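Q: What structure does this chain adopt?
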Amino acid sequence: MSLDMLGSMNDAGAAIWVALILFVALLIGVAVALHRINRLKGRLRPYLHTFETASVGMTHLTLDGRWIRVNQKMAEITGYPIDELIQLTFEDISLPEDIARNAEMNAKLVAGEIDSYSMEKRYRRKDGQIIWVKTTPALARRSDGSPHYFNTVIEDIDALKRSQLALQASEARFRAFWDNSPFNQSIKDTLGNLQEINQTYRRTFGIPDSAVAGQSLSVTHDAAWAPQVDEFDREVLRTQTTRTADITVPGKDGEDIIIRVTKFPVFDSNNEVAGVGGVSYDITSQVRAAQEIREREERFRATFDQAAVGIAHLSFEGQWLRINARYCEIVGYTESELRKLSFRDITHPDDLSDDLDDRSGLIAGTNDAYTREKRYIRKDGSPVWVAVTASKTDQSGSQEPYLIVVIEDITNRKDTELALAARAEQQAAIMDIGQRALSEPDLDLLLNRTANVITKIMGVDFCLISQRERAGSAFSIIAASDTGRKYIGWPVEPRIRHLKTVFEAAALTPVIFHRGDPESPDVTSPIMEDIGTVSAASVIIAGEDNTPRGILIIHNRTRREFTQDEVTFLQTVANILSAAISRDLIASDLAEREEMLDTVLENAADAIIVADARGDIIMANRASEDIFGFDHAAIVRMNLRDLVPITYQSASGNSDAGPRPQFSTREMIGIHQDQSRIPIEVAMTQFESPHGTMHISLVRDITEQKSLQSQLTQASKLATVGEMAAGIAHELNQPLNIMRMAADNVLIRADAGTADLSYAQENLELISEQAGRMGKIILHMRVFSRQDTSDFAPFNPGRAVRNSCEMMRGQLELESIALDIQLPQDNHAVLGSESQLEQVLINMITNARDSIRETSPVGDGPEVVGSISVELREDTEDAVVCIRVRDTGGGIPDTTLERIFDPFFTTKEVGIGTGLGLSVSYGIVNAMGGTIVAQNVDGGCEFMVELPITQEEEDAFATALPTLQAQEPR
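A:
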């Protein structure tokens, strides 16, 4: 081999050796590196295990927020698998509101301002749920100190955070309730120092918004009453019971106010007494209002009973309702005697008309009050002058309106004319008690909503509200939360019924119950058993007099402790509900009364009809249908005149002003559905309603009564005819004698041959005239004695007066009794029965004759032993015709005067009088819409009949009694 080849081989071998050496060196380096890597892995293995199995989330993030590594706990917290989470950034699962704060803090880490930080933020899990987490990032740096990545620990704090938020919300609600409560609220420690007061307390007492914690009442209020309250609080701490008291304290303006204070022990978490809580509210206005009402009542009663003037209350019908002693003293009657009379009975006849006018104006509302001077007739018959002031009570109230009459005896002043007329002033006191109105009129809705609110706020399973039954001591559920609606109507039946802590008024202490707790009162009931109550709390809903009206109770199916604040909250709610229940009880009472009134109206035997001012019928009861024959629907579409036509008008002729209120009963004619006429008795009054003036008519069918009255009237009429027999015989005998004398004269001249035709004609005319007079007397007696069955019609009362007197004149002349008749030239007609009015007048003239017989000797000559005057006059202002019959028969005893119109009452001897005459006369006059009164006058008695004038013309073709004329002497 050449040297060149050898040299070449040597070069190639050297290269191989070099390569081999390098390869070996590389293998050695790789082996060393692998060794070092394995050794490093061995060192990192515990850390990696910790990272993967940690109980908190751990992540490595790039500086731009991308996940490098996440552990399994982080996947569980976010709800994403690890492979999906690695594809996201932390911003993808963070709420936008938290990203800015997160980025700000990361920037401080990168800048080296902080080493790490902790932050509470929210993640949105893969299922969309928002959860709270606590993140604690730290920054990993390279060996040269430059930022490398974030190493973050994430803790799931969702449950804790939500509990904290719920607690904060609960505290906020309680704070809002505390500060905005309408009651003064305070808390004191066991040493008597204030810990906290609410804003209402500060406003009530004028305490500035400065700290009061640690201050005593004496320092805070600087008041003399503080020691009294401190002693009250110490008693609450000593007895560990709730106590209530009313105290008087100065308010913020310095004036005393009355507050109702309820103090109760406050317990800490160890159930140890930590202080005293207080709830109070201002009751000054209620106390003072009640006191003012009592004082007013006492003043009114003292004024009424002890007044130096006479005071009386009269109904619109003129009956006495209340009379004081001075009134009785002035008029000379006892109270019991006055109650049997009306004001008309003791008013002087000359003053009665004006008095009635003033009174009518007062009742009708044209005058608010009136004052006038008038005369009363005392019990002993003497007149007494009085100044009368009358006013009317408000008709808008629930009571029937009445007249207030004040009288002052002015007899001395009137007799001596030494002073001007004095007027007594009377003011009507009107007390209007306003009741607090609540915003929710529906009690059930209010209570049920309240129950739901309590259930939600306190986090209990059920809230039930019971109410005490009105009759008895039992309670039943009236409202409940939505979870307990099935228990509405269930009775509350405790196992031990005599528990004072629940059902007696003396103890209004809240009751806490825990099943199985030997210290808890055994108040289990069927409701508790059905619910499965484990814990419950109840408070009493007390009325104003502290009597239990209901129970507010909450139930929980698991054991639950109730703090004193929660019990106080329940008691406060119960106090507020008490007013609502009170209002509902009042509304229930009103509804029951209205139902009872409807029942009374529908079952009344008399028709009751309500009409407006035009007479249009608004309401009618069932009896209205029975009397008039129309159904209810038809009646309420009619006018009152359709059923009861107005059969007379006032003197002015105005009949279109609607129904005229009548304040006493009168007889009228009603129209049945079949157009038949029904005799009815009607009483009408009026009242003011929100829809204007309303009229109430009480209507009674008196068909049977009228039939009996007609028979009684006919019997009385026939008795009168019998008593008139002697007078009638005298009236017929006188024309017979004249006729006989005339005939004898003609016969005598005829026998003597001196008779001529003119003389015979003159005597025949005289005989004819007297025969006609006898015919009129007989016809009048036939018509008079006939039973009157016709309806009322207009007639001339003057003719009835004249006929009555002429029928009695002959009999009176036989007994030497003078009869004086005073009639106007003309007069208006009245509505009624002419023959019945004649019967009334004849009865009064007959009674006058009998009185004169008893007091004077019967005359047997021309000497007059007594006189009777009959006078008719008209009062156009009052639209009445007045007929007076006065005699000189000595009068009627006062003890008898008030009974003369009673049926079967007579002053005559047994067998002489029937006692029906004046009673029948009273009924006749009353049926004609008039009045009849009797009074003693000088030397005798006077009867006065007043009948209303009608504008209807007398029917010229109606059957009327013939007019009798006095026999002219020849």
